[in-house]
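--- STAGE predict ---
source: upstream dedup step, 1 unique chain passed
mode: sequence only
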Amino acid sequence: MNVLLPRFLRTLYRKEPISSFILVVGAVDAVMGGVGQRWSLFSFGLFIVSLSVLLRWWQVQKAQPIATEDKPRRYLPPSSSAMPLPLLTHDKSRR
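--- STAGE serialize ---
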C-alpha cells in the first residue's frame, strides 16, 4: 500500500498538473480551516476542491472525441461495365 499510493498519486498529478495543483491548494486550505476552526477558510477550500474536480471532469470530457462514422462518398460505380484498356508498352525496335 505504501508503494502503490505515491505511484498512483504521481501518475495522476503528471496527467493533469493544473487541476491537480488547484486540488492540492484547496485541500490544504480546507485542512487548515478545519483544524483552526476557521469556517470561511474551510468553505473556501471545499469550494476550490470542487472547482478542481469540475475542471478535471471538463478536461476529460473535452478529450474524448465524438465518434461519427461517415461513409466515404463514391462518385464512380463500384465496378465498371466497360472493358479495361490495353496496357501501353514502349518498344525501341519500332522506329
